[in-house]
Amino acid sequence: MTDIPSSHPRYASLKARERLVEGVRAGITSQAGLIAHGRGEAYDYLLGERTLEEAREAARVAAAMLLLADRPVMSVNGNVAALAAKQVKELQERIHELRVSRGMKEPAFVVEVNLFHRTEDRVKAITKVLRDQGVVGVLGEQPNARVPGLDHARALCSKSGVASADVVLIPLEDGDRAEALRAWDKHVIAIDLNPLARTSRAAHVTLVDELTRALPVIVEEANELEHRSQRTLASMVTGWDNPAMLVRVLGRISDRLTSLGADQLDPEGI
Ligand code: ATP
Fold this sequence. Notes:
The protein is α/β, with parallel strands linked by helices. Helices cover 54% and strands 10% of the residues. Strand 6 (187-191), helix 7 (198-202) and strand 7 form a beta-alpha-beta unit.
């Protein structure tokens, strides 16, 4: 990887790009994944590159859904594996522990590799990255079910994964698949920097936030919910209004744009 000095003002962003470029070289990330990342970065600029209160609230409800679910599943693609394998492992582990301590019948939080641009080599490479990081029970190499309403390889999934899940976390997903999962009666949690994306609008709960920031926030919020009753968690989920939250995020972007003064746009201030 290129040696980027940690003092560079765009260090985190440049590192993320490096990880994705490396992911393409290693056969983990698709080339189209680089473009998807660019769209995300643009929205992150507009959001101020921080976790908004709206995303934290959504993370709390997402955590409640993951703790209450009969069979929660996280769907992982090449961008997620390249950028956030460690955060995926930490989330899987903590949600599993909390579900065990709550006495859930099936406490596992299943991780399944699902690709828009599916090749068997890519699924294998992503599975290896996740396993090497400590993610357990990774599904996706032998799909034996299909998401209804989708064509070709995009529809493939596993019977013991997405097909039998009641709650599916999709950190980065294409809008078609997000809509198809919802139409299949799955409860969908999305992470997407673009509040206008079909994925963001199709989900029951959307964290409008950057993936590597958002996954640890779900862990933090799940920890806060450790001793809350099932009933309290259920009322958090039923009380959630995702479209209203998306409107608030759009308001934040619009306020930020209109309040940016000439002083902030002065080259001296950049
Ligand atoms: P949709 O089909 O949902 O309307 P889209 O065509 O933009 O939207 P894709 O190109 O399939 O969707 O996926 C890219 C999406 O992922 C973008 O909405 C982008 O904001 C989001 N994204 C990319 N990188 C990140 C990231 N690191 N964290 C969060 N979101 C991201």
